[in-house]
Amino acid sequence: MSINLKQACEQFNLPIPLSIQHLLMLRTFHEKEIILQSGKEIDGLYLLIEGRYYVTTREVTGKELLLRYCNPLSVLGDIEILQDCTIQSDCIASSKCTFIFIPLSVYITYLQMDGTFTKLLLKELAYKLQTCTISSRVNALASVEARFAAYLCTIYSDSSTKDYIFTSNLNEVASLIGTTKRHLNRIIKTWGEQDIITRTTEGIKIIDFAKLDLYSEDIRYE
C-alpha cells in the first residue's frame, strides 16, 4: 500500500493541523533496519502508519530482552521527548515500516501545548506501561516453553507467507526471550515429535496453531 502524508493523517484521524502538515515527512525503514538505537539522542516523534517493528531493552548484564511488537498506530520518541532523555530502547523493523516523522522543533512549536495531541501521547504511554509490566512478569515468571510459543504466535501474524516463520538465527531468538539456543532446540525437537511445528531449511512451520497457542498461555509480545 502506498500512502501520502495527508491521507495517513486522515486515515488515522491524527490531531495534526493541516496548516503544519507540510513541515512533517514520511520515513521508511526496511526489514531488520534499526529505527532507533538506545543511548542516542531523539530527533522527533515517529508515528507508525505501515508495517511492524519490535522493541528490545538491555539489562544491566548487557543482554537484550524482547519487550513487544508494535503495529500502526504506535509512537516512538514520546518517552524521550517528555522525559528529556536519550533513547531508551532499540527499535528494529520486522517488516518494511513507514512513519510520519514530526521533527522535535515542530512538536515543540506547534503541538506541545495541544491538548488533543497530548492525549494521543498519553494513551501511547499508558499502553507502553502496560506492555512493560506484562513483559517483566513474563520474563520473570513464564516458562521458556511459554515464552517461545508466545514469540512464535506473535510473529506468525507478521509472516508474509503464513507458512514458514523465518527464524534461522536461533541464537538471536534465544537472547530475545531470555534463554539459550540449546534449550530452544530441545523444545523444537519435542514440538516436532508432537506435530505442533516442523523445522526445515526454510524456517519453522506451524502445523497445529491451537496447540502452540495453549503453550503460549495467552501471552503475546505486543
From TrEMBL:
Give yes or no: UniProt keyword DNA-binding: yes
List the GO cellular component terms: cytosol
What's in the keyword line of the UniProt record?
Activator, DNA-binding, Transcription, Transcription regulation
Which is a Pfam family this sequence falls into? cNMP_binding
Query: Single GO molecular-function term?
Result: DNA binding
Q: Which PROSITE patterns match?
A: CNMP_BINDING_3
Q: Mind telling me which InterPro entries this protein's record contains?
A: cNMP-bd_dom, cNMP-bd_dom_sf, Env_Response_Regulators, HTH_CRP, RmlC-like_jellyroll, WH-like_DNA-bd_sf, WH_DNA-bd_sf
Domain Cyclic nucleotide-binding: start-end pairs = 24-128
- Reply yes or no: does the keyword Metal-binding apply: no
- PANTHER family membership: CRP FAMILY TRANSCRIPTIONAL REGULATORY PROTEIN (PTHR24567), REGULATORY PROTEIN YEIL (PTHR24567:SF26)
Q: What is this protein called?
A: Transcriptional regulator
In its UniProt entry, the species of origin is given as Heyndrickxia shackletonii
Question: Lineage from the top down?
Answer: Bacteria, Bacillati, Bacillota, Bacilli, Bacillales
